[in-house]
């Protein structure tokens, strides 16, 4: 069959040259399901065709006259073909060859000839006009029974090919239609994307109409393909990361790194290879560490896909299918049951006792009860859309059916994804400070070069020689050890944080905590335990009981009038506990709740009183499940060991509903009629407990639902974590403002904030809706006074953080849910909870609290302040020593003095400046009093005026002392080894005392302890031992050109060089005294500049 067709209609693949004018369509017979496989293979050409063919847009799919095909018909397997010259000579040769060599019936031959002639006639008449692309349905596959070979009788399915009118040989066959342009999918009438807000306001029938969906039978496969072509897969498209080599190269954009690179290049050009090697090694270490840290922390977007379930139950073509969640499209019908994670945003149309845990998305602690009725009052608050099941949330109980309204990035979960994708983490204050330091050092280096060249030119010296000297000095002045010290200091800080149960993912974040002045904390799971707990009981006769303990465990007590109640010691309290325990479906095993949090709180209450076994003492005869409409649950039971006793009903639920079924109440063991006065009293107590942020449940029992006895009220709340209040108090005292951002109601949020000391009478609270209506400028003005933001969604948290950052605040954001991820990424410091936090939250954060202890944040802030102080100590030491060395050499050069130090001695001093003594300053233990100091201003440079002045004072002392020794030894105007040895040793001892005084900017060396930093002690001791070897070891004496010194010489040098430490200690003492005086006077602390205004 293939040979026969090819003999009459020649098809050239698109990989060859395409001829527009000879393009024709394939016969309509290919549409039929019985089309021969060989024929289909002849016509179909892969999509990987030539560029020219793609521009022509030609396809090999047939159309009859007037037919056009919509998007569902364009299957992924789209063939493209061009029919070439239809010469009669080749067709005739094929017919003769087949008739002579293979045989066949005459009638069969004539019909084939007739059909081929018809095709040729169509091709000749239409050849000049068929030049536009068209769209067509996918090619059908051939039945397995169909086979074509010469000499064999074709099966019935293929015999139809020869006799079907209108397909091959009939005169009345329709002309082949013109090629039609493939329509743009976006221009077609497509299924709209419904937002959850709009879908919640519409009736189910309206939603189904808009989505053109069948709620009971679902979609068919062609509709699914059509919609997926427009809406895409139900997944998140994560853009490809840039190559690793690009990420590595980007680390060199740091100004300080670029300055060091320039120094290395200049050192090579000037043949100072030792400097070039040391600078290059420093650059490689710093860049590699920064690259590794960045590479490990860029996974936040990938983790979002983990909350989308891989599989789900979907109704299609009237059948329930188990399919991949990524296959869902808008209009699909999805079935949910207990334990399922919702695969897409669903508009529910059937729901039976459905409760969904939305805490990861909205921050609400308790599962949300779902309904099917329209919610016309639904606003920007996700919690108000009770007929929508959101992607990524978890079904706690019940079952439901819903129609898909949003998939992938078009879901509410996708909104979080898009915000995370668009948000970039800001630079840390330390990175900004280091960038500024690099620019300052560059400016000073060029200044040194210019000044030395100018002075040399004025003195008549050779310009080239002076340029060489000035460049060498500028390169030597650059502290190439600074990046290494910063990296090592931060790394050690990270290691210390691990011991405190905190994981820091990015090194600079440790220091950033030191200048954090605002903490925005999520309530649920961060400040609170996210475990509902009964904290208050009110019996029907007015008795109040307090309940201690937190969480789903037996640890805690029930206290009435100062006495601990256990078992049936107090009948009024015991009856309430019994009703809450029996009318309950939750189970607590190994301190883990299986069921609703509210019911878990009642079981935990029974465990604290030793009455949790009551649940097994009753046999349940009937049950009235809880629903959001009726707002109560009841069970009818009989005692397991006393089944002859009458049945008893237990009820729990909202007070307004339970009280309707009550006719009596219990008072001191007596059953009395429930009067209106008692009802009003209970209503007042319920309102009082509600204003305290408690969730109030009423409990009752009796023989029938209409004849119940009111037992009392219980107040339930998600209590604060242990130790959080103390941490909050300390942080507020140190100048850190803490703001609660939660999705809970105003009453609950304010109640928790008041317990923690965050909210006072002068504080304000703002809702998410109010944040929406405010301009960023207005919000920035009022946000410092706001302590609580309630009913807040992820976009509200973003706006709040941006407003705080606009005011210049360094913001830390804590959280544990998906709804916190975007804010964590946008904040200067993102802090996630390690135990209760989701994977998305952890990956977006900069720091993870392993044990969810809010107190760890206080330790982290303390660590950050200490690290920044250590970096400043190192900068002070190295710059003062470098400036002293440069000044010493520059003065000798400019004043035509002989060089007081030779090349090897300068190299040794450079090693000490960048070596162990300098590095050990980065590991100085954190001062315990640093937490009491206010956060530093992130705009402040490391090189403050106060620090620069201290550096200059130390440098002047070192230069003056060294020149004094050199002048003292050079009285005979002849430089001897003793002269250079005394000068060399003097400078080294000055370095050691300068390092000692640089250990703290404010405290005395004796106050912090001489041996508190063991590494520093070892480094200084090693440097002194090395200096003594250089002086007294003969082989080294030849290398460094030194000679032995007497004990008196050493004592003289020690006394002289200690002056730099003595002056520094005096300055510290004066600063502390002045600060203490001003603190007592209520004024701000002064700087060192205030004591030396003339300088």
TrEMBL record:
It is found in: Golgi apparatus, Golgi stack membrane; Golgi apparatus, trans-Golgi network membrane; Membrane. It catalyses: Mn(2+)(in) + ATP + H2O = Mn(2+)(out) + ADP + phosphate + H(+); Ca(2+)(in) + ATP + H2O = Ca(2+)(out) + ADP + phosphate + H(+). Residues 121-130 have a biased composition (Basic and acidic residues). Its EC number is 7.2.2.10. Residues 92-136 are annotated as: Disordered. It is a multi-pass membrane protein. Pfam families: Cation_ATPase (PF13246), Cation_ATPase_C (PF00689), Cation_ATPase_N (PF00690), E1-E2_ATPase (PF00122). Coiled coil: none annotated. Residues 198-272 form the Cation-transporting P-type ATPase N-terminal domain. SMART domains: Cation_ATPase_N (SM00831). Belongs to the cation transport ATPase (P-type) (TC 3.A.3) family. Type IIA subfamily. Catalyzes the hydrolysis of ATP coupled with the transport of calcium. This is Calcium-transporting ATPase. It comes from Mus spicilegus (Mound-building mouse).
